[in-house]
Amino acid sequence: HAVLLILIVNFLLITTDLPITIHFLRLGSFNENHFYLCLWWNFFSSVLSTLSGFYMLWASIERYMLIFYYHRFLGTPMKRCFFHYLPMPVLLIYTLVFYSAVIFFQTHCSNYEHFSYDALFCGKPCYVHDRILLSSIDFFGHKILSAILIFFCSLLLLMLIVGRKRQRHHRRSWIRRRQHRKMASQLLSISLLYLI
What we know:
Elements: H1 2-27, H2 35-68, H3 70-74, H4 77-85, H5 87-104, H6 111-114, H7 126-130, H8 132-166, H9 174-195
Helix pairs in contact: 1-2, 2-5, 2-8, 2-9, 8-9
């Protein structure tokens, strides 16, 4: 499910962000009548790019759980609901609430004053300039930490699979090992594409 959600989120990011970017680059700037376009452009771009990173991180963690701890985390319907289905809507709700609060409902600053209509994305929303804590959470927590954790989770998964491959297993586990290798190779290829 996580890979499907990554594809959907990235599709939405490309279909909403790219046409506005092309329109902006064609015109060279927006006039001040496009304030709400700039506001929504920042919102959609921030939500979808952060959500893509969160879903990729969750896919990395979930693959690890599927391969090595299936019965512990996903063995019963209740555990499957809690560890497989629930994190994805929670990440969606968190991302929507965070960016709605910092872009639309910011009381300490005005986006109208901070937007530069001749800059890509009309510049940045006011919380990036005026609210250091929120800006740090957004940049370091949502962007940098997600990318680092995706890399290390994928690397850990690769190392564990290679380590398990070297150990002797029974003949009956051959099918499971092939499935594990397939899941790991899918995750690694998606992780490499995401990090590039």
